[in-house]
Design a protein that fits this description.
242 residues; alpha/beta; Rossmann fold; six-stranded mixed β-sheet; four-stranded antiparallel β-sheet; 10 strands; 38% helix; globular; binds adenosine-5'-diphosphate; binds magnesium ion; ATPase-coupled polar amino acid-transporter activity; cell membrane; EC 7.4.2.1
Length: 242
Amino acid sequence: MSKIAVKDLHKSFGDNEVLKGIDLEVAEGEVVAVIGPSGSGKSTLLRCLNKLEEPTSGHVIIDGVDLMDKSVKLDEVRQRIGMVFQHFNLFPHMTVLENITLAPVELGRASKAQAKERALALLDRVGLAEKANARPASLSGGQKQRVAIARALAMDPEVMLFDEATSALDPEMVGEVLQVIRDLASGGMTMVLVTHEMGFAREVSHRTVFMDGGVVVESAPPAELFGAPKNERLRDFLSKVL
Ligand code: ADP
Ligand code: MG
């Protein structure tokens, strides 16, 4: 069974149909990179996967549970799916540690002491053990994004979604964030990464998906997708970004 199965997913904003029938399956432990031009619906797709956006029609099935089923508790689903955004979205008035422990404690997943211990271990894992008591404003962009990843991991998600997690970063900070994502991939985390880092998509993903105009145009192992692109639109896109 797929960890994530998207079936004939449609999403419109008013008259603007942004997703025009997406089918996508992600196996447990699989890393899928999603590439494509700006406006092609990549973020909307990702947001539909944990229902930050309500799909217009179709199915999003996580571990066999259809999120379109009205009886599904969205809070529970969202706790199992971590999401990291381009703009970090850390709480500025809280310390790094408080940012990470907030959700597990508020949602009754851990005691304060347990959450703190876990947060410190996660900070160590992303190379920021010494920043536990810092405020987000004192961190670099790369450090903020690593805290955001640690915060998502604090909920022990089964799936991680990344939406252009490195595109707001200065170039010298991209590598440190990609390294954390790379480590998660080798640890077997199921992930969907929207990225404009073509080299990274090629290196880290098991499968790369090219979206254009609200549809999946091509989906293949990266060596194939980048090495021998079949579709004209993909070839055109790659000629502009590579
Ligand atoms: P991408 O991430 O590939 O750049 P998006 O999914 O962000 O593409 O956007 C696809 C289209 O959906 C764009 O035309 C965008 O303007 C539109 N869109 C996205 N979110 C909203 C929204 N909340 N309300 C209205 N239109 C939206
Ligand atoms: Mg986007």
